[in-house]
Design a protein that fits this description.
The structure holds three protein chains of three kinds.
Chain A: E1 3-14, E2 18-29, E3 33-38, H1 44-52, E4 60-69, E5 72-73, H2 81-85, E6 87-90, H3 102-107, H4 116-129, H5 131-136, H6 146-159, E7 164-168, H7 176-193, E8 196-201, H8 204-210, E9 213-218, E10 221-227, H9 228-232, H10 235-241, H11 246-265
Parallel strand pairs in A: 3-8, 3-9, 6-7, 7-8
Antiparallel strand pairs in A: 1-2, 1-4, 4-5, 9-10
Helix pairs in contact in A: 4-6, 10-11
Chain B: H1 14-23, H2 25-41, H3 44-69, H4 77-95, H5 99-118, H6 126-150, E1 157-158, E2 163-164, E3 167-168, H7 172-194, H8 197-207, H9 209-214, H10 219-245, E4 247-248, H11 255-268, H12 273-296, H13 304-325, H14 329-350
Antiparallel strand pairs in B: 1-4, 2-3
Chain C: H1 2-28, H2 35-52, H3 57-79, H4 88-110, H5 117-120, E1 127-129, E2 135-137, H6 138-160, H7 162-172, H8 174-179, H9 184-209, H10 218-230, H11 235-255, H12 264-275
Antiparallel strand pairs in C: 1-2
Helix pairs in contact in C: 1-6, 1-7, 1-9, 1-10, 1-11, 2-3, 2-4, 2-9, 2-10, 3-9, 6-7, 6-9, 7-9, 10-11, 10-12
Classes of the chains: A alpha/beta, B mainly alpha, C mainly alpha.
């Protein structure tokens, strides 16, 4: 099995001083869905942004490490070049153009050069994946619910014809029913297109439902990785991300405090 | 941290400058003595330029405190100066009041208008604030024009030289010393203000208004205070301008004047009082340099009718160059030069 | 009834100029305070082409249109592009500087005197009798027609073309636009070009209707309140804002005091800034960086 994306020892700093990632290693296998689990501030979004390209405004920089995409070194490649390579991100926040209608949100994408009838086809394709969007076609995206926005954002990203789809916080803030629906839709997309995906999640349940392999990120480092079945049975993951019992979280907090004090003593 | 509001010049060198002042006290004293001796050798023409620089410097210091320190943009500085000039002019013309009445009255009028200028700032930021001050500029100019029209003084108001302690302030040397003292006083006052609680509050609301509010800075109060104080000073310099020209007319207070003051603080270097002085010198000298060019290089095709346009163009170009290539202004260049030399001399010292 | 015609003509003028502010602001959140000067530059370009290249008025106007597009494009590529990522205020001050630079340069090139553009082009600005009591000049009539055409064209472009959609999208969410592969520089350049183009049309028609000198750039500043009243990012808002300003200006001049003409738009501006800073139809928001 080949890897479409390979990250080695990635270090990212914000504003030249704040270290957000300290040596992240991860891989995404071609045609597979890979998950990246982690708590708030673990560095998940930064990892995704480092892959999909920062823009000047972010004031962020890759300090060390390599990002390889399809065997090619793309470290530090900026937008929109990464898009042209086929890496497309569904961001966590502000993921749709609120002043555009649903259909316009799909059409506005720049990379598809197809015109006219071909365009209709692409759009219909997206509506087949997300039939709910078809009914909302002419509604401004600003009036959509959170789940509908997520679907539209994924749809918009798919129009870009990605080879690797990065999704930041798929389930955050969405009702469980909607999450289930989106998971179902993404499974369909994956079954049809075998699109490689990297899924950032805080909920292990969602990650495990979709991904076949997973990484656990903590404090800017990969703490754990493995096939979903292995992670599923890992006690630490169970405690932290499936919320089984408060003891696990208490342990984790105690550990974190100990680590912090150790670092402070050094 | 960069400033999100005005953000030009990512340095906040207020304190650094203050420290530098202490360190270089002898240099400053030397400069003051030197400046005090200037009138003994300078021609009336040069004294006139120096006096213009002094008047501009007072106005530039005010704008620097408002925009460079407190982060409140104003495109209406010319309007404020007009307010001061007209208060003085109207008081003198209607009542014959002396300078001890007209100057304080101008300051008060400026402060009141500053309060009005400042009110929109409680709701508006950045671009919108800039527009409201621009609008107020036009309103003040309109009122001035109305007065000129109504009082039949459509060409302007003439002023006699002010009398201070029985001495008529008339000749160039006297003006030079009077204005020199006033600039020094304004500079001293402003730098003390910046090192006070007020100054720190201004810096805080410049850097991040929301954070400042969260930290307990009374944002509304300090914003209004910034407008009131600096407008008072600006109006004061407008009154001095009126006396110095012995003439008040709306013609003098164009939008271009406001732009010139903005040019002073950009070119001088945002956030630095010394920068305001440098900017005032620079901007006042530009038209003279262009006149000089006109005389020395005749085939440029410049003549009297186009000289002012040439200086407009020059100001535009200079502002653009500074904004794009040197956002920290002349003071930034100066500091870099000093740093380079001092590091060199240190190296030499070690060797 | 003549007063209604005057209001419509003035509304058209302000609306046409205001559309330029709206385009640039909507897309890049930059307030272009050099718009008045760019507008007048359009008229001077017509003077230059008619004097230097061709005497045929129609060809001269067509060439002027092309030149104004080049001007708009170069303003973005040579200047405003440098300000990307800078604080909005630095960008606004840059446009102030550009305005004063253009103003000076135009006088240096074309002289301070008033030019009679209509006679240079042998364009007869006869007054057209619409009804017994209403007459307007030919140039004013063209102004109204051009404004209608420009607005219809812009609205169609923004809502029906792919690039128009991209402009709207980039204005609303530049980061997402970049993440969807939209080249922001292209979008911004497009906005500046269109804005300068529509401004130049206004400049040319104003110059044909009266005379041309640099001080007419103040029309640009007076049209700004129109854009703001409607909401800086709303095109139809600008149209309505222009109407409000024009009605007030014409009525106050007619019934109260002619001197008010210069100050009315700014009084309206202050009023709207106090009551509803984001305008009647604008989006309420706060942005600090380009």
């Amino acid at each position: 099995m080949t890897d479409i994306l390979e990250i080695t020892d990635l270090e990212v700093t914000y504003q030249r001083s704040i270290l957000a990632l300290h040596g992240v290693n991860l891989r995404v296998a071609k045609g597979q869905i890979t998950s990246l689990l982690g708590a708030n501030g673990a560095g998940k979004s930064t990892t995704l942004r480092a892959i999909s390209g920062f823009i000047g405004l972010d004031n962020a920089r890759v300090n060390a490490g390599r990002v390889r995409f399809l065997g090619e070194d793309i470290t530090g490649l900026q937008l929109p070049r990464t898009i042209h390579k086929g890496i497309v991100l569904v961001p966590e926040r502000d993921k749709v153009f609120t002043n555009l209608t649903v259909a316009e949100n799909l059409e506005v994408v720049a990379t598809s050069r197809e015109e006219g009838s071909k365009w209709q086809q692409i759009e219909e394709e997206i509506f087949v994946y997300f039939p709910r969007l078809a009914k909302l076609r002419n509604k401004p995206a600003g009036l959509l619910s959170g789940g509908e926005r997520q679907m539209l954002a994924i749809g918009g990203a798919l129009v870009c014809r990605p080879q690797l789809l990065l999704i930041d916080e798929l389930s955050l803030g969405l009702a469980p029913v909607i999450v289930d629906e989106i998971i179902e839709r993404l499974r369909e997309v994956h079954a049809k297109t075998e699109l490689s995906m990297l899924l950032v999640e805080q909920s292990a349940a969602v990650a495990f439902a979709l991904a076949s392999y997973g990484f656990v990120l903590e404090n800017g480092k990969v703490e754990l990785e493995g096939a979903t079945e292995d992670l599923r049975s890992n006690q630490k993951v169970l405690d932290l991300y499936l919320g089984t019992g408060s003891t696990g979280r208490a342990d984790y907090l105690a550990n974190a405090r100990r680590r912090f004090e150790e670092r402070a003593n050094v | 941290m960069s400033n999100t509001e005005t953000g030009i010049g990512k340095i906040a060198p207020v304190r650094a400058v203050a420290k530098g002042d202490g360190g270089n006290r002898t240099a400053w004293m030397g400069l003051i003595v030197l400046l005090a001796l200037v009138p003994l050798v300078a021609s009336p023409f040069h004294l006139d330029i120096a006096s213009q620089i002094f008047i501009a410097a007072i106005g530039a210091l005010a704008l620097m405190v408002l925009t460079g320190i407190a982060g409140q943009i104003s495109l209406g500085h010319g309007g404020l100066m007009a307010a001061g000039a007209f208060t003085t002019g109207i008081l003198y013309k209607e009542t014959g009041a002396g300078i001890w009445i007209t100057l304080p009255a101008s300051v008060v009028a400026g402060a009141v208008i500053g309060l009005i200028f400042g009110l929109p700032s409680l709701r508006l930021r950045g671009v919108y604030l800039a527009m409201s001050t621009l609008a107020l500029h036009f309103v003040v100019i309109y009122l001035g024009g109305e007065y000129e029209f109504a009082s039949g003084a459509s060409t302007g108001i003439f002023l006699d030289p002010p009398v201070i302690f029985g001495y008529e302030l008339y000749d160039g040397q006297a003006w030079y010393y009077a204005l020199f003292l006033l600039v020094a006083g304004t500079y001293w006052g402003c730098s003390n203000l910046l090192n006070s609680k007020t100054g720190r509050a201004w810096e805080a609301l410049h850097a991040n208004e929301t954070a400042a509010e969260a930290l307990g800075v009374q944002v509304a109060r300090y914003k209004l205070l910034a407008f009131v104080i600096t407008s008072g000073i600006a109006s004061f310099s407008g009154a001095l301008f009126a006396y110095y020209q012995s003439f008040v007319s709306v013609e003098a207070f164009t939008l271009f004047m406001s732009i010139q003051y903005i040019a002073m603080i950009i070119i001088g270097g945002m956030g630095s009082l010394t920068g305001a002085l440098l900017g005032a010198i620079f901007v006042t000298l530009v038209p003279y340099c262009i006149e000089w060019l006109m005389e020395t290089v005749p085939y440029l095709g410049l003549d009297i009718s186009t000289a002012s346009s040439a200086s407009h163009a020059a100001f535009g170009l200079l502002m653009i160059l500074f904004l794009v290539f040197e956002p920290s202004g002349l003071i930034g260049i100066w500091k870099r030069t000093v740093a380079r030399f001092s590091s060199q001399s240190k190296k030499e010292g070690v060797q | 009834m003549q007063i209604v015609a005057n209001i419509i003509v003035l509304t058209s003028l302000y609306a046409l100029v205001a559309s330029g502010y709206v385009l640039v602001y909507k897309v890049s959140r930059v307030l272009n305070l050099a718009h008045g000067e760019l507008m007048i530059l359009g008229a001077y370009l017509l003077v230059a082409t008619s004097a230097g290249i061709t005497s045929d008025p129609l060809i001269a106007i067509a060439l002027t249109a092309v030149f104004s597009i080049i001007v708009g494009l170069s303003v973005y590529l040579l200047l405003m592009r440098e300000m990307t990522g800078q604080p909005v205020l630095a960008a606004v001050l840059t446009t102030v500087a550009l305005g004063i630079l253009l103003r000076g340069a135009m006088v240096l090139i074309w002289g301070p005197q008033q030019l009679n553009v209509a006679s240079m082009l042998s364009f007869e600005n006869a007054s057209v009798v619409l009804t017994d009591s209403i007459r307007v000049s030919t140039a004013s009539l063209w102004l109204v027609i051009c404004t209608v055409v420009v607005y219809l064209g812009l609205l169609a472009f923004l809502h029906m073309s792919r690039w128009g959609m991209r402009m709207r999208a980039s204005g609303q969410n530049p980061l997402l636009a970049a993440q969807r592969g939209i080249n922001l520089h292209t979008v911004y350049a497009l906005a500046w070009t269109l804005s300068t183009f529509s401004g130049s049309i206004a400049g040319v028609l104003v110059a044909l209707d009266s005379r041309l000198d640099v001080n007419m750039a103040v029309i640009g500043l007076k049209a700004f309140p129109a854009a703001l009243v409607g909401g800086l990012d709303s095109l139809h808002g600008a149209l309505i804002g222009a109407g409000v300003i024009a009605v007030l200006e014409v009525l106050l001049i007619h019934y109260v005091n002619p001197l008010l003409s210069d100050v009315v738009p700014f009084l309206v501006l202050i009023a709207i800034l106090i009551v509803r800073p984001w305008g009647l139809f604008g989006t309420k928001e706060e942005l600090n960086r380009v």
